[in-house]
Structures are given as C-alpha cells and as structure tokens.
Design a protein that fits this description.
It is a single chain. The chain is α/β, with parallel strands linked by helices. The chain has 10 helices and 12 strands. Strands 1, 5, 6, 7, 8, 9, 10, 11 and 12 form a 9-stranded mixed sheet that branches. The radius of gyration is 20 Å and the shape is globular.
C-alpha cells in the first residue's frame, strides 16, 4: 500500500511540474491602452495582460508576452511565431475561419471620439468628414460601412488620436475602453476631445486567438478564463483598470 501511495505521489509531482513548466507565448500589440500597452517602466501592462496572468496562475502555465505590431500579428500566429494573441482581438465570423478563439473575456462596443466642439452624435453625422481607425480592426470596419464617411487607416490608434488632436482628421473610432482612455483620462487629449457616440456593434467580445487546431493551448487558456470568472478575479481586474462604477 505504501509503495503504491509513494508511486502515486511521485506521478502527481511529475505531472504538476510538467503542467507548470508549460510556457505560452502571447503576441501583444501594446498600443491599446488601457487594455494592453507599455508603461513608463517599459513593461507590457493592461487589463488583458492582468487577465491572462491570472488565468495562467489558475490553469498552471507560464505566460510570456511578446510585443508585436498589429500589422502581421495574425500572419505570425499562422506561421507559428507564438502560441496565441492576447491583444483585444474581437471574435468575428471571418476571423474564426482562420483561427480558433478562447471563451470571451470582455464585451466591447465602438466609440466615436471627436473634438469637444463637435456636434456629432453618431457615425452617420460624420458624412463628408475624415474618420481615422486602426487598420484591420472592427472600428475601421465600422467606419467603412457608413457611406459618405472618409475612412483613414493607421498602424496604431495613438497616431490617429494625435492627428485628431492636431485637427488633421475629424474623428476616431476604436473600442470603447480605448476611446474612454483618450477622451476621459489622458490629460493631453481629454482637454480637447470627447466621446461623441457609442456605436452599437452587437455582441462583440474579445477572445484569445490561437492557431487553428491547437487544442492543447486553447484548453489551458479556457481553463484559466473559467477560473478567473468563477472566483471573482475578473471583477477585481475590472475595478483596477476601470474603477468600481
């Protein structure tokens, strides 16, 4: 009996060490505050980063975050340059054809940011005007859908906000947490900008993207996400980055 017990404990120890040793490399376009960005100490931080760190702790894997430009981030996943993408990626039917997604971890809408003096209350009010968005995002797709609005694409959302601040374009569309970050919290921007409208984008959620068929990584990430939700950790992370209201 003792021998069997000893062997069982040894097996459990080996299995546990193997599970904890699993490293998952996440690509991150760290230009999307407060979801994922580089802080003053040159660290990649944000809501999504804290969320995935918590999920990793619960599921028993080690997360590594690799700063990656949005342009080409999906091609890098397909090419095996990293295991997953943790970068405010909205789950869409088109993307699901090319990659698999974790369970959703954040609901999102689109926000229209305009100068404080603007009277625009919807994206339709921007007809004849130039509206910027990060290329390949659901915000850019939303702008492109409205006839008469001139869409201008950017590699980074911060460049679009800078152009709006300097009067070179008339509005910017991006995910609502990012819109709120610039229009309400960043002093340099919030003095001159505001959120003109929240655009209904239906049931839009962020998910972690993994290479099609990578069930091992997907199962680990989903295990972590479920635990973060079940244990109330998700609420703590939201309060940290968005406040209690």
């Amino acid at each position: 009996m003792f021998k069997k017990f000893f062997m069982l404990m040894a097996f459990c120890l080996i299995f546990s060490q193997t599970a904890l040793a699993r490293t998952i490399v996440f690509a991150v376009d760290a230009t999307w505050p407060p979801m994922e960005f580089v802080n003053e100490d040159k660290e990649i931080v944000g809501y999504s980063i804290d969320y995935m760190k918590a999920a990793a702790k619960e599921a028993g894997f080690t997360p590594v975050f690799k700063n990656t430009a949005w342009d080409g981030i999906f091609a890098g996943l397909a090419g095996g340059n990293y295991d997953a993408i943790c970068s405010s990626v909205s789950i869409t039917p088109e993307r699901k054809k090319a990659m698999d997604f974790s369970e959703p971890y954040f609901k999102v809408s689109q926000g229209l940011v305009v100068p404080k003096e603007s009277k625009a209350k919807s994206l339709e009010d921007m007809k004849g005007k130039v509206v910027g968005a990060q290329i390949g995002t659901t915000g850019y797709f939303a702008v492109k859908k409205v006839p008469g609005v001139v869409a201008k694409s950017y590699d980074e959302i911060g460049l679009a906000m800078q152009d709006l601040l300097n009067g070179r374009i008339d509005g910017v569309v991006c995910d609502d947490p990012v819109a709120a970050q610039y229009a309400l919290r960043e002093p340099k921007f919030s003095e001159k900008l505001k959120i003109g409208a929240i655009i209904d984008s239906g049931d839009e959620y962020y998910g972690i993207a993994v290479k099609k068929g990578n069930k091992e990584v997907l199962d680990l990430i989903n295990k972590g996400i479920r635990a973060v939700k079940a244990k109330g950790i998700e609420k703590q992370i939201k309060e940290k980055w968005f406040g209690s209201n």
